[in-house]
Design goal:
This protein is mainly beta. It has one helix spanning about 30-40, and strands at about 10-20, 25-30, 45-50, 55, 65-70, 80-85.
Length: about 110
């Protein structure tokens, strides 16, 4: 795998997907250090924008994300992380951070130029 382009952006979005179900679990950010720690340990590490520090997902809750693979997008500025979760991924105790706030979208019909 190539490396993310941290020269373009210090923080890169990391979308975590359950490798077994395909469900999107969460979105967090990685800097170079978090990315390297994730590669070295096989568990997700992220950069906390609020605390301004590295955090290992599950370090206090035990709800780890064990990484099976990672892919970069075409611009090398986003990471798709495939993981096997150990427990819920959301701090609310839900499986996914995308469990609670559905947005209703009205159909706009088909797109035409």
């Amino acid at each position: 795998m190539s490396n993310p382009d941290f020269d373009k952006n210090e923080l890169i979005p990391a979308i975590v997907q359950n490798v077994d179900s395909g469900r999107v679990l969460m979105l967090a950010y990685m800097n170079q250090e978090a990315f390297n720690l994730t590669l070295e340990t096989g568990t997700c590490h992220f950069w906390s924008r609020s605390r301004q520090e590295i955090w290992k997902k599950g370090s206090t809750s035990g709800n780890l994300l064990n990484v099976t693979a990672m892919e970069l997008d075409c611009d090398s500025d986003s990471i798709l992380v495939f993981a096997k979760p150990v427990g819920p991924s959301c701090h609310t105790g839900k499986e996914s951070c995308f469990d609670s706030q559905a947005i209703e979208v009205k159909s706009a019909g088909s797109y035409r130029e």
